[in-house]
Design goal:
single chain; 232 residues; mainly alpha
Length: 232
């Protein structure tokens, strides 16, 4: 069903556009000065009014990320991939989504330590999540997207890793503009990796969540169902 495939596309396009809208607003109102240095994503989103949009974009993105990560986990389970690696992928994906929300709500000029922790979850754990998905691409049968989807995921994950390392190294060397360029490229790389899930979700017909009672609750329900109150 094509509706499920829209979720990753919405996250990829909406997140990318939202980030650049925040950037152009920050440049337009003078919150950042690009003649001095190119700003980091969080720097653009730290000042009002674009900070409100920045937080909203990341919160909506985090929600979509949770849905996408769970849907991908369940899809792989249905394909018979019940490994610990698939479960680890779900956990890492949820942590990545949590980190995105933390980055949006705890901005760097208000809660720097919390903000950096959220950035670690969003970027570092996010890259680990997509490395896991790249490996699981070859374990899942059927493999949607043909022979190109696996190598593309590996290449984009490798690019994301290189950009992450470059961001940290350049920052430590005091090359803020170059480090910011790499951070923006890393964010776009992650959005593209999320967008690739549209290839997999195109083949999802439906998704449902079932609530199962434990044995104690079932026995209690059976007792309650068999108990009659007789009117006097």
């Amino acid at each position: 069903m094509w509706g499920w495939a829209l979720l990753p596309v919405l996250l990829a396009i909406g997140g990318s556009v939202g980030f650049w809208v925040v950037y152009f607003m920050a440049v337009a109102n003078g919150s950042v000065n690009i003649t001095e240095s190119f700003p980091y994503i969080s720097t653009c989103g730290s000042y009002s009014p674009q900070s409100c949009i920045f937080g909203q974009v990341l919160n909506i993105g985090a929600f979509l990320g949770v849905v996408i990560c769970y849907l991908k986990y369940q899809q792989l389970r249905d394909y018979g991939c019940n490994s610990h690696l698939n479960l680890a992928g779900l956990i890492f994906g949820l942590l990545c989504a949590l980190g995105s929300s933390v980055v949006g709500n705890f901005q760097q000029y208000n809660q720097l330590e919390t903000h950096l922790f959220g950035a670690f979850l969003a970027f570092v754990v996010g890259i680990l999540y997509f490395w896991i998905q790249a490996v699981l691409t070859y374990r899942a049968k059927p493999r949607h997207g043909g022979s190109w989807i696996g190598p593309l995921r590996f290449c984009l994950s490798a690019c994301g890793t290189a950009l992450l390392v470059a961001t940290c190294v350049l920052f430590s060397l005091g090359l803020d503009s170059e480090s910011a360029y790499c951070e923006w490229a890393l964010a776009m790389d992650l959005f593209l990796l999320f967008g690739l899930f549209a290839v997999d979700f195109w083949h999802v017909d439906s998704c449902s969540v079932h609530v199962q009672y434990c044995m104690v609750n079932r026995e209690t329900l059976d007792i309650q169902a068999s108990t009659q109150t007789l009117p006097l």
